[in-house]
């Protein structure tokens, strides 16, 4: 079991064997000043795969907490909310103490927490929701907070070397809640008195001296200390985080040890990149939203994308979607043959293959069919699919039905605007004429074949037509092979795009007569057509 979730699970298993605990606690964190996004999905999905692997590996139970940092003060008004003026009057206050600008929940934090839970529920994640505000106010963090007060100077000693002179002079791991304004205050502590459950501090604006209880939700911890406090108080065994938090993990781990706890096993994942290879930023809006992905592909394909090499930076853009869908379909088909944890679909589907049948064609093939027939209606594609796979309907092939809908959306939005046919060169004309003649000669027996046999036979004909200059190149066995240039010509001249499917499969799906018609039309062109 060399799959990365099992490698991570072994770390958790070793940790529990050392500690003697009988249950593992996994955690993911969420900042509720914004809405859940594609990164939220990735973190929860990846953590869930490690959790599942741990349970399979050890037979021990586990829990996953989705922890909302909803006691954090609102630093700025988000762009995507109504009633911004109202929110602007509550800056600095915990998001669970701010009115909901949408008017649907008791606070802005409660609104966004509800969105998080609905988001996770929609994908079927198994988790327990945890609210920072609730944990602080209910007393669940009281013992850990008093412990931090006892170790106040040692905790400061971890953080101070990382701060500039001004912040160093005022830093405390404790952020008292102002008794009059409700603002989360970042002020130096005049006194920290754990025996009296008391923080003493001065309001920098009024000069007023305040005494604030350490427990009961009257203060919270600064976020790096807060992370450590949570690990210590709850006994978290495993948590993932992005590459940008490596230093924070190190500091929070050191604070956790100061408190007397053992920080969780950590896993650092890489960030996603945009079309130009720049880091995706919510504020820039330069990435791909989860709603956009799900318009063009099923959710399992997003899981496939998240599963692959999480510690490598990857472009998260529209052109990644078809590849992710087909990769998912390939692994899903493999899972039907053998329930092997080395197959990503094993993790995506919890170890068991889904019950619905496998689609008879790839997503790329559907996209190319949609491109050729200029599909704007699912029935246009189903006409070809029923001929290729008799009996196929949206009811009998539910996944195929979804892929047809996704293919039409993707074609309309991305393929159609970029379609650019080119005229064939003299050598390409000769090869295309040979391909057309061979298909005509074999049309009757090709149409009589089963789809898979027809696709293989058509592929052989495609290869034979390309075995001529300038497309000849030696194969691995030393026999005459066909260069990529021949297939590029097929895609660019016949389909109007740079890439395409295995062409024999396309011929089998589109039909012999239809393919001959494509070639005839291409050879008859005298100028490059508009898309």
UniProtKB/TrEMBL annotation:
Domain of life where this protein originates: Bacteria
Binding sites annotated in the UniProt record for ATP: 282
EC number: 6.1.1.6
Gene Ontology terms, MF aspect: lysine-tRNA ligase activity
Localization per record: Cytoplasm
Record-linked PROSITE patterns: AA_TRNA_LIGASE_I (PS00178)
Catalytic activity: tRNA(Lys) + L-lysine + ATP = L-lysyl-tRNA(Lys) + AMP + diphosphate
Keywords: Aminoacyl-tRNA synthetase, ATP-binding, Cytoplasm, Ligase, Nucleotide-binding, Protein biosynthesis
InterPro entries assigned: aa-tRNA-synth_I_codon-bd_sub2, aa-tRNA-synth_I_CS, aa_tRNA-synth_I_cd-bd_sf, Lys-tRNA-ligase, Rossmann-like_a/b/a_fold
Signal peptide feature range: none
Motif ('HIGH' region): 32-40
UniProt short sequence motif 'KMSKS' region, positions renumbered to this chain: 279-283
Membership in a protein family: Belongs to the class-I aminoacyl-tRNA synthetase family.
Name of this protein: Lysine--tRNA ligase
Organism, as annotated: Roseomonas nitratireducens
